[in-house]
Amino acid sequence: MFIVAVNSQLRAADYPNILFIYTDDQSTRTVSAYPDAYHWVDTPNIDALASEGVLFKHAYIGAWCMPSRATILTGLQQHAIESMRMEGLYPGSKYDPDKCKFWPADFRKQGYHTAQIGKWHTGIDTGFGRDWDYQVVWNRPRYPLNAPNYFYDQLIETNGQPPVMTEGYTTDNYTALALDYIKGKHRDESKPWYLWLCYGAVHGPFTPADRHLDEYQNADTPDIADIFPGRPGKPEYIQEMEMWARGKNDEPIEKKRPGPTPVGMLDLPGRTLRDWVQQYHQGVLAIDESVGLLMNALLETGQLDNTIVVYTSDQGFAWGQHGLKGKVAPYQAALAAPTIFRLPDNMAKGYRSRGTVVESPISGSDIPVTFYSLVGLKAPWKMHGHDLTPLLRDPIADWKHPALLVHTAKLYGSATDTIPAKGDPNLFHGPAPWYVLLSEGCYKYTRNLIEGEVEELYDQVADLAEIRNLALEPEYKSLLKHYRQMAIKELKRTEAGFVNELPAVATK
């Protein structure tokens, strides 16, 4: 038996730090640097990050909160994350750390000081002392009765100790903790550091900070082509989607949601879409302020030139598009998360990595692989993602890797080897059934894993709103076949147990 010595004495001066900012339910439409942002949106600090870095236009990090985070922690698609499971009162969940390993533990063994602050949504075991040297978290799975408290009065655990009821606006609380860490508190300053900063904003109930309640008075919502029923070419569950009704002068107003309201969300039947969108965007403003504070702290402490900063969210959020109010469904409006990489000057030499935009789609599993590449360490296992550094060097590089996102509802690992039958509650989570999404170039393909359901193929340059389903048009038959085969190839590459029992697609 060979014993491999790990480098537990990495010098901070020789390895870059990583500040990984991770928000919740944040659409690309909330960031003014993105082309699909509403004209009235203003996020100067996130925009500044984009102007100094690389903005990814199509990033599919995950479908919803828990699997998105599980993918970030493992580098694997949901169907390969073994032992992760929902258990008990939602969002209760567990995993076996011997079967489901999180890569920050390896960073820690190799000499990084690792920290996590904010929302935790991946099993009651948060990994302090194994994955994290320092951890201050809102452990939602352990305290499900406190799980709706996204913005105030959270039970906060520090370094695995019993929780403390904590007052104050959570975005500000998490930022203050992160600023202390950046400035040297609670860490070994001789080591490089990795900080995963997980905001609960802008998740439902979409509560802005009091100081932002008067912002965005000029908010409006451009016409959404398919907010009301009548969505030809869409799968059955989207055709039946009725979250919005016609109010005065046909202005969209919220309908009563069928069934229970998801934990932490807020429904107000009769409220206008415009008012919801204003409130949701107000909730982003405290995050934007926080980005400015964090970047200033890096500058003031002399760490800006040695810190990789990455900004993203677990997924996006649809407001009316395809009739939706929420996430999970396989559409740009519901999934696409703002994603920005900013490299420090000492790494960016020779890169076209300042103020550039990448059109090539990417997925959440690409991020851990890229972290390992950027810091020059070897990953501890084979991950599903691809190293994004070629796109950081050149945003128009010839990128041959499709972005894959597999949604298997609340099931993980080998529990996904068999696709639930139609009518089985395990087939759906939120509005959407199991699906396989693959995007490469300008096209995005979705295979809904229900017998006889339509496939979907969209041109994301000509039709970013994803109204025209090309999969149903005869002239795209060969292209559809190509993307279908590519998706199956990716399922096999990522060892999806259900790949050989895919349900038949619609014939028309």
Describe this structure in words.
The structure is a single chain. The protein has helices at about 45-50, 65-75, 105-110, 170-180, 235-240, 275-300, 330-335, 345-350, 365-375, 390-395, 475-495; strands at about 15-25, 55, 60, 85, 95, 115-120, 135-140, 155-160, 165, 195-200, 245, 250-255, 305-315, 320, 325, 340, 355-360, 360-365, 405, 430, 430-435, 435-440, 445-450, 455-460. The chain has about 500 residues and is an alpha/beta fold. The chain has a domain at about 15-210 and about 270-405: Alkaline Phosphatase, subunit A (3-Layer(aba) Sandwich). The protein has a 10-stranded mixed beta sheet. Strands 19-22-23-24 form a 4-stranded antiparallel beta sheet, with helices on one face. A two-stranded parallel sheet has the order 3-18. A hairpin with a 2-residue loop joins strand 22 and strand 23 (about 445-450). The termini are far apart. Residues about 1-5 have low confidence and may be disordered.
CATH topology of the domain at 17-211 and 272-403: Alkaline Phosphatase, subunit A
Given the C-alpha coordinates, what overall shape results? globular
Please bin the fraction of helical residues: 10-25%
State the total count of DSSP E strands. Answer: 24
Strand order of the largest sheet: 9-8-7-6-10-1-13-16-2-17
Examine the secondary-structure arrangement and name the CATH architecture of the domain at 17-211 and 272-403.
Answer: 3-Layer(aba) Sandwich
Which helices and strands, and how do they pair?
Blueprint: E1 17-23, H1 44-51, E2 54-56, E3 59-60, H2 65-74, E4 85-86, E5 93-94, H3 104-109, E6 113-120, E7 134-139, E8 154-158, E9 164-166, H4 170-182, E10 193-198, H5 236-239, E11 244-246, E12 252-254, H6 273-300, E13 307-313, E14 318-319, E15 325-326, H7 332-335, E16 339-342, H8 345-348, E17 356-358, E18 362-363, H9 366-375, H10 389-393, E19 403-407, E20 428-429, E21 432-433, E22 435-440, E23 443-448, E24 455-459, H11 477-493
Parallel strand pairs: 1-10, 1-13, 2-17, 3-18, 6-7, 6-10
Antiparallel strand pairs: 2-16, 4-5, 7-8, 8-9, 11-12, 13-16, 14-15, 19-22, 20-21, 22-23, 23-24
Helix pairs in contact: 1-6, 4-6
